[in-house]
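Design job #97: recover the sequence.
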């Protein structure tokens, strides 16, 4: 457990169990089985796990509350003097290793989740490396986001915890005893000895999950990840950083459907003590489409096809009902509510469950989705070929009717809809990519198809002219967030990345300069200025890290290459020791904030590395670069 500095300073009188449990985000490792994920603190505690899937209710919710909201800790007992530690991922895997060094010896704790079979498992292997160390295990299971205490009983050689449909089984050779509605174990570990703790999730109406060899599962898990990493074709100066981000993206993927969660967490605040706390355990079309393009670029063709399958299934049906956000299997209902019994991470409430951004119109997703679909290679027997072309046509028919309307934009503002420039630009991308795909495939050769493509060309030209006329402010010498506004938006750094204008266009250079002048602090970029409340929320958030990675790419493309390299290295230094990074960064507090780890940030990192090393990126390769207005 970590006691926050502000708790000490304010002299809180909370009891041990009432003290907040969550540690700094930099102190968490991610483990997962590609259907759900857990956050394991460097101090030995699993403080967040939703079972059985990413979007299920958490059974360990201590990250957003106290010990009483659920955690699973293994660490040296209080009687042990800890002299130091080592913390790392096993190379090319999602297996975490923690070495505790005490006055009496050394212990290795290995944490992982095996690729899922019938059940989901969390495995913790404790191995004595030197001497004899007294260890302590604490297990507090609380279902329904830390609210429900389960019925716990011993059955044969394992422990069963049941609550409604939920069943969790703990198997271990360590001695167990009850202590204050929790389960604990105190044991001595000698050099060469191993004790395993296997926590398995199942249904309370079915047979208990079967036991298995934990060390064999460790070998299988290592093989799974190293085999997957072996498909990565990216090499270069930043290959290690790219590899870790790709592993993280794979871990955030719901394997049964191919959907990608934006993050495995909910309500980690964008400002400590603020209310900008959102549930990211869902699949955004934007993130999934960008992942598809990124995977294609580094050689994961089969995985990209799986992502495309999720896209097609999710948006299937009427183009009028396209959503920006879906459930991990393509569900359309993501109702938002508040878990008011949780105090929130460092008292940053409310804790929101669900996300009503699914109800918003976000025009930019049309561009993201169509760019992804248009660039995915197809095999001769690809069952999706006809569906892809049909879907693209329907989406563009819809977009041609609505692109002139205001929307909620990429940042999902909760204020009035606006004519966001980024949204219009991405509408242009939608038509541009479809035109190129039809022309390159020869599908525009028939008369009816040529007429269709001609209509797309007219829409593309109209959008480009409209954006350049109404989205550029001559006084600021910059594109602005929305038509008629004086506000800037760091998302507009993507203008040269998507080929809307050349990187050396004076308007692009002016936009980069204006964003740097008005949205930068200590070299990092904020999305936009939140102080006027126009987004419908109280002001205040951290620097948005994806924007800073876009800044890297924009700097490189416009010729400021040394600055781009320097900034990229600075951003890499913001990652935690394991290579993980959150949504935002608190410049003043020098810490990561927002949901963690965040897919969009890791995606932007990979793209920036590709741009730095190859001179382009998944969105710029092969694009027309002579767009003018």
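Job complete. Output follows.
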């Amino acid at each position: 457990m970590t006691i926050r500095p502000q708790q000490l300073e304010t002299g809180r009188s909370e009891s041990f169990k009432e003290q907040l449990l969550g540690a700094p985000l930099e102190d968490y490792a991610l483990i997962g089985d590609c259907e759900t994920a857990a956050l394991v603190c460097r101090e030995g505690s699993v403080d967040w796990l939703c079972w059985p899937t990413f979007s299920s209710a958490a059974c360990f919710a201590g990250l957003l509350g106290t010990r009483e909201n659920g955690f699973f800790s293994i660490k040296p007992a209080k009687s042990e003097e800890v002299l130091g530690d080592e913390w790392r991922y096993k190379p090319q895997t999602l297996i975490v290793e923690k070495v505790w060094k005490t006055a009496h010896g050394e212990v290795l704790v290995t944490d992982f989740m095996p690729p899922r079979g019938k059940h989901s498992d969390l495995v913790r292997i404790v191995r004595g490396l030197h001497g004899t160390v007294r260890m302590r295990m604490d297990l507090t299971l609380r279902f329904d986001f830390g609210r429900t205490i389960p019925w716990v009983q011993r059955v044969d050689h394992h422990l069963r915890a049941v609550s409604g449909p939920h069943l969790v089984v703990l198997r271990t050779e360590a001695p167990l005893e009850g202590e204050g509605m929790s389960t604990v174990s105190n044991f001595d570990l000698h050099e060469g000895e191993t004790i395993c703790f296997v926590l398995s999730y199942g249904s309370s109406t079915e047979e208990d999950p079967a036991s298995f060899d934990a060390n064999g599962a460790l070998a299988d898990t290592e093989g799974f990840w190293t085999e997957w990493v072996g498909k990565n074709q990216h090499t270069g100066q930043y290959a290690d950083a790219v590899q870790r981000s790709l592993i993280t993206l794979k871990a955030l993927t719901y394997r049964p459907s191919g959907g990608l969660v934006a993050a495995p967490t909910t309500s980690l605040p964008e400002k400590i003590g603020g209310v900008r706390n959102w549930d990211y355990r869902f699949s955004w079309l934007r993130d999934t489409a960008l992942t598809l393009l990124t995977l294609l670029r580094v050689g994961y063709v089969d995985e990209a096809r799986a992502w495309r399958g999720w896209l097609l299934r999710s948006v299937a049906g009427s183009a009028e009902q396209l959503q920006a956000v879906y459930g991990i299997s393509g569900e359309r209902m993501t109702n938002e509510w508040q878990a008011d019994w949780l105090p929130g991470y460092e008292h940053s409430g409310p804790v929101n469950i669900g996300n009503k951004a699914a109800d918003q119109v976000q025009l930019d997703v049309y561009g993201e989705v169509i760019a992804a679909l248009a660039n995915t290679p197809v095999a001769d027997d690809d069952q999706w070929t006809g569906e892809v072309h049909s879907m693209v046509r329907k989406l563009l028919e819809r977009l041609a009717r609505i692109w002139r309307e205001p929307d909620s934009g990429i940042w999902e503002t909760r204020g009035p809809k606006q004519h966001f420039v980024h949204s219009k630009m991405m509408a242009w991308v939608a038509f541009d990519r479809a035109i190129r795909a039809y022309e390159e495939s020869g599908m525009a050769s028939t008369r009816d198809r040529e007429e269709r493509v001609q209509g797309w060309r007219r829409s593309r030209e109209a959008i480009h002219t409209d954006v350049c006329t109404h989205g550029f402010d001559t006084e600021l010498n910059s594109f602005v967030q929305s038509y008629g506004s004086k506000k800037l938006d760091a998302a507009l750094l993507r203008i040269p990345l998507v080929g809307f204008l050349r990187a050396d266009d004076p308007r692009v250079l002016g936009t980069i300069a204006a964003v740097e002048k008005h949205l930068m602090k200590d070299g990092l970029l904020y999305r936009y200025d939140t102080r006027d409340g126009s987004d419908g929320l109280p002001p205040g958030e951290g620097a948005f890290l994806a924007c800073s990675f876009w800044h890297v790419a924009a700097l490189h493309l416009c010729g400021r290459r040394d600055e781009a390299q320097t900034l990229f290295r600075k951003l890499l230094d913001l990652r935690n020791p394991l290579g993980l990074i959150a949504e935002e960064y608190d410049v003043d507090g020098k810490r990561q904030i927002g949901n963690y780890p965040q897919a969009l940030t890791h995606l932007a990192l990979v793209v920036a590395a590709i741009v730095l090393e190859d001179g382009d990126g998944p969105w710029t390769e092969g694009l027309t670069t002579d767009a003018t207005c």
